[in-house]
Specification:
6-stranded mixed beta sheet, binds guanosine-5'-diphosphate, GTP-bd
Length: 435
């Protein structure tokens, strides 16, 4: 499991500035998608020694009882309970406040490891700047500047070092694609899982010691092996799976990160909500292969069917690389074809492309359309090699490639996807200039 770092602190101490710094990625995929609904509170960080999840709890108000604020408070509380490390941010320029002390008490009660960061420390003497915060009782505070990036990398490395490294996926006895079934509450995830698994198809099942562990359930369908990554509070009760916990964003994100292929379940009887779009945005950000399952197809009339299709095309247009399935988990209709798409998406995500093949495809793309000149620069692409799988990363080498516009990057993406018939996975392009 990727460690989850949770940012906590009162408003204006610099949490979202730090969040942006921790989740910044050179990857243009998300930035390229105008209108993609990103949830500013949850992100993937790849800047440290290993990947991690970051949660910004926003303006942490533990006392709210109702409405949106209460829901945010509930998610903040669950983030604190589920986080692997709590980064407690205070404002060194304002100094220690009573609100900081209240938050400190809440964090102490959680029993989670707490790292205290005194922010806005640029140009300050570290010792005097952080002196008064020792009183909070979390040991020596780390002085950082989120805005200037000072001390952030060191703090990050320190936090990440405190967690045991994951075994590399594929090292263990799991076989086949790792599949996560995600979606907001009540769309039919547990019904779908039960339809997929059937009690006789589960090969082995161990209830882990604590709910913090992901549950991986190996199963077989049509002679093929899969491993189901448990999500968001789905637990096995007797012979069947059911949702026994409240929806947890963090568990959903963790499952997405653990999976090779994500099945995003939507409810055909409801319009696409922000929560659907946030989860979709996260799958895209994680670069996972994806299959869309529009569930409860049995329960909707033609009007609704057209409407949900239009909604998906409009609000989730950035998932057009994924296959769409209209299914009924309850009546077990459409499950076979859905799994077939999981297989195809997995194969596309794990494809291996030899350098000569990729370079030939690059040259064909260039013959059809040259990248535009940028001032005196004419970007020159020489060859391409594969830099990663799941998602496939194509690294293009050449000169002056930093001047390639996003539109041309997208053109290349489409060209590679078409050439190698990669259905169901996003593909990423990185440019490397020799200068
Ligand atoms: P949040 O409410 O905790 O998410 O805080 P924000 O990230 O929105 O930051 C609040 C204010 O503090 C903004 O005006 C930031 O520009 C500023 N800020 C954040 N980090 C730093 C820093 O390291 N140094 C200074 N001087 N200002 C900062
Ligand atoms: P989860 O919270 O996403 O795990 O959703 P559940 O699997 O618990 O399903 C929520 C509700 O939707 C239950 O009442 C299910 O019986 C119902 N449901 C699930 N799949 C279907 C379906 O394909 N058709 C219909 N009509 N109802 C379904």
């Amino acid at each position: 499991m990727k460690p989850t770092l949770v940012l906590v602190g009162r408003p204006n101490v610099g949490k979202s500035t730090l969040f942006n710094r921790l989740t910044r990625t050179r990857d243009a995929l998300v930035a390229d998608m105008p209108g993609l609904t990103r949830d500013r509170h949850y992100g993937i960080g790849r800047g440290g020694s290993r990947p991690y999840l970051v949660v910004d709890t926003g303006g942490f108000e533990p006392l709210a009882k109702e409405g949106i604020v209460a829901e945010m408070a509930r998610q903040a509380e669950s983030a604190i309970a589920e986080g692997d490390a709590l980064l407690f941010i205070v404002d060194g320029r304002v100094g220690l406040t009573p609100h900081d002390k209240q938050i400190a008490d809440t964090l102490r009660r959680s029993g989670r490891p707490v790292f205290l960061a005194v922010n806005k420390g640029e140009g300050m003497n570290r010792d005097t700047f952080s002196a008064e915060f020792h009183e909070l009782g979390f040991g020596t505070p780390y002085v950082i500047s989120s805005a200037h990036g000072e001390g952030v990398r060191q703090l990050l490395d320190l936090v990440l070092e405190s967690f045991p490294k994951d075994a590399e996926p594929g090292d263990d006895d799991e076989a086949g694609p790792r599949v996560a079934i995600v979606g907001r509450p009540n769309v039919g995830k547990s019904t779908l899982i039960n339809a997929l698994l059937g009690e006789d198809r589960v090969i082995a099942f161990d209830m882990p010691g604590t709910t913090r562990d992901a549950i991986a359930v190996p199963f077989e369908r049509n002679g093929k092996a899969y491993t189901l990554i448990d999500t968001a509070g789905l637990r096995r009760r007797g012979k069947v799976f059911e949702a026994i916990e409240k929806f947890s964003v963090i568990k959903t994100l963790q499952a997405v990160e653990e999976a090779n292929v994500v099945v995003l379940v939507l409810d055909a009887s409801q319009d696409i909500s922000d929560q659907d779009a946030h989860i979709a945005g996260f799958v895209l950000e994680a670069g996972r292969a994806l299959v869309l399952a529009v569930n409860k197809w049995d329960s909707v009339d033609d009007y609704r069917r057209e409407r949900i299709k239009a909604e998906i095309a409009r609000k989730l247009y950035f998932l057009d690389f994924a296959r769409h399935h209209y299914i009924s988990a309850l009546e077990v209709v459409g499950i076979g074809p859905l799994l077939k798409s999981v297989d195809l998406a997995y194969a596309a995500a794990m494809i291996k492309l030899a350098t000569p093949k990729l370079t030939r495809a690059l040259q064909t793309a260039l013959t059809k359309q040259q990248p535009p000149r940028h001032g005196v620069y004419r970007p020159k692409m020489r060859y391409a090699h594969q830099g990663g799988q799941n998602p496939p990363v194509v690294v293009v080498h050449g000169n002056a490639l930093e001047h390639i516009p996003d539109s041309y990057r997208r053109y290349l993406e489409h060209h590679f996807v078409e050439t190698f018939k990669l259905q169901g996975t996003p593909l990423r392009i990185e440019f490397r200039s020799a200068h």
